[in-house]
Design brief:
Length: about 120
């Protein structure tokens, strides 16, 4: 299950990088891409939670889910700006990305190093 979560978060990250490049390039952010990014991230979060609850995840996975949950909150906040057609706060975009990358790093360690 952890490898499925890694895959979902990896694809979500590609969408997130694309959105960030568009944001910092002052381009319009496509709503379907933002929705797909959020859906993939939420799916990864659910799969990771199920793995933890069923005892099939090492301790570092707990850190990963906490970090991803914080990143998700930031994502919801950013999405609210997107829906209101207001400019996204760049500082929140950066923090959202950094927290998600930290969560992904923890997940990779938990998945492939078994720590």
């Amino acid at each position: 299950m952890l490898t499925l979560a890694v895959g979902l978060f990896a694809v979500a990250a590609v969408g997130g990088i694309t959105l960030a490049v568009l944001h910092f390039g002052k381009k319009n952010l496509p709503l379907p891409l933002a929705l797909l990014h959020g859906l993939l991230g939420a799916s990864g979060l659910v799969v990771l939670l199920l793995a933890i609850l069923h005892g099939g995840a090492p301790a570092k996975a707990t850190y990963a889910i906490l970090l991803f949950a914080v990143a998700a909150l930031g994502g919801f906040y950013l999405f609210s700006f997107h829906l209101r057609k207001k400019p996204l706060p760049s500082a929140v975009v950066i923090v959202h990305a950094l927290v998600a990358v930290a969560g992904f790093a923890c997940l990779l360690v938990a998945t492939f190093m078994g720590i």
